[in-house]
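Thread title: Can someone regenerate the structure for this chain?

I was given the following input by a collaborator and told the matching structure tokens would be attached. They weren't. Posting the sequence so someone can regenerate them.
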Amino acid sequence: MNKLHPTALWAHTKTEAGQRAIRYSATSLICVGITQVLIIVFYKVIKLDLTSSLSGEVEANLAATMLTSIPAFALNKYWVWGKRGRAHLRREVLPFWAFTVAGWALSTGAVALVSSWAEPHSTAQTILVMGANIAGFGTLWVLKYLFLDKIMFGTDHHTPYDEDIELEEAALGHQPPAS
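Best answer:
Regenerated them for you:
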């Protein structure tokens, strides 16, 4: 049977990998919602304009993206992949932020592209900015899932760096959390 057949997809939702993909999708929807609300607040309500080198829509996109990356990381690590303990800077936080920055760069390029298509701070331009943000991050969505699942948080790849974290914490005098 084809893996994309509805019966096969339904069966996949019952597996751990399928449940993880559903949680990842839900996390993405939650974070898209948070980002979009923040873009409206920063761009339309506050009219963020802190620098002369960046446009207000680019600043709003940057602020919304960076703020949302915090709950996105926490939801992905703790809820989607069920990891516990402190975040490991080199093996978890920095790779996650690399994807965040890549998404921000793509979405900023898209925001810059659409920013001249409508009157500044108009509803039309706000909608264009929001759509550009989604388009930028949407292009990385599948790649990010594969990276997080197969390399960073996946069940087959958690043991080596979890052991590194335990060794580092032991060297710092931290006790591992009770299981």
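DSSP finds six helices and no strands in the chain.
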